[in-house]
Amino acid sequence: MTLEWVRPSVLRKLGILGMNGRNVDYIGRYNDRRLYPLVDDKLQTKKMALQYEIKTPDLLGYIAFQSEVKKIEEFIPEGEGFVIKPAQGSGGKGILVILSHENGKFVKPSGEVLDLAELRRHVSNTLSGLYSLGGRDDVAVFEKLIEFDNAFDGFSYEGVPDVRVIIYRGFPVLAMMRLSTSTSDGKANLHQGAVGAGIHIGTGKAINAVQFDRPITHHPDTDKDLRTLEVPHWDEILEIAARAYDMTGLGYLGADVVLDKKRGPMLLELNARPGLAIQIANNTGMLQRFEAIDKVANKPWDYKKRIAYSLEQFGGE
Q1: CB 244 within 8 A of CB 270
Q2: Which domain holds residue 161?
Q3: Which H or E run contains 252?
Q4: pTM value surpassing 0.85
Q5: Looking at the domain assignment, is residue 106 inside a domain?
Q6: In the sheet that 96-98 helps form, which strands lie side by side, from edge to edge?
Q7: Who's near 9: CB < 8 A, 6+ residues apart?
Q8: 129 and 138 in contact (C-beta within 8 Å)?
């Protein structure tokens, strides 16, 4: 059955985690607020991942002060695409994707062209906290644009797709692929109009897809059959996600992984408050899986054993 327009009592029977339950029973219980800066600040996450030898997109540089805005050209790679993002942003706010540039003209996935003055204005707004959590002063992070794997041709529209994996107490629970659309302006954020394709935790193959929480079968821009999506390097993606628990100590975590054509899977960012739409994308609730994990979560297992348990419990469904 689909998960839209269902009574709360039915959702509970289906094992669907709601917002209040997420906030109180899981985020409040398993995510120590002292650890939030490790994931809320993308620059900290990147530095921490390097210490754990987890691959991330190449850092081109960052700007922390308004007086440095005038030198943004130092962080723009010649002839290549790049991304500017707020270190403490959320929900895709403030992420500026540039596919290409030439003669001072910078092209976004939508085809809109910006000039250098507009880029500087965007960076300045980022530093002032326009896009950050709580409106705090922020840092503008420059990263090299991902050259996404050819396996995703037609599945994403002018943007880099990523895999979101929910990790509970170190165990992979649910996964989905977030696919950009013209509506989402090349960003892989569901609330901006990206497609969420539920991914089978055992096989890496798509099992369901939604846009704006409604079921779809084909990509709205390319008409690609989303049911044919299969994520390569699935084992490595699960390893990166599961190791994020060891890296951060957060018990309820969303790990976003991208696949670069040359470098393979890389950790894009982490989220201490991952959304719940992944259940709709998978047409599956999380609560029953949490209960299965709770039975073994105190065992001194490394990430490989935790992954093996998740695949044994959830990989055959």
Answers
A1: yes
A2: 8-54+149-314
A3: strand 252-260
A4: yes
A5: yes
A6: 59-63, 140-144, 82-86, 96-98
A7: none
A8: yes
On whether residue 22 sits in a domain, the answer given is yes
pLDDT averages per 10-residue partition of the chain, 317 residues: 53 81 95 94 94 95 96 92 92 88 90 95 96 89 91 88 97 96 85 94 96 94 96 97 97 96 94 93 94 97 98 89
Q: Are residues 90 and 191 in the same domain?
A: no
Alpha-carbon distance of 61 to 67, in angstroms, equals: 15
Q: How many CA atoms lie within 13 A of 188 on its CB side?
A: 21
Last residue of a domain, one of 144, 174, 198: 144
CATH number at residue 107: 3.30.1490
Give which of 293, 242, 281 is closest to 4, Cα–Cα: 281
> Is residue 17 located within the same domain as residue 127?
no
- Letter string b/e over residues 115-140, b meaning 16 or more CB atoms within 10 A of that residue's CB: eeeebbebbeebbebebbbeeeebbb
Residue 137 forms part of a structural domain: yes
Q: Examine the domain organization and report whether 46 and 63 are in the same domain.
A: no
- Contact between 242 and 167 under an 8 Å Cβ cutoff? The reply is yes
**DSSP notation for 4-62:** SS--HHHHHHTT---HHHIIIIIIHHH--GGGTHHHHSHHHHHHHHHHTT---PPEEEE
Which regions of 73-224 does DSSP assign to beta strands (E)? 82-86, 96-98, 100-102, 105-107, 113-115, 140-144, 162-168, 171-179, 195-199, 206-211, 214-215
Statement to judge: residues 203 and 309 lie in one domain: yes
Query: What distance in Å separates the CA atoms of residue 86 and residue 108, rounded to the nearest whole number?
Result: 17
Regarding whether 287 and 160 lie in a shared domain, the answer is yes
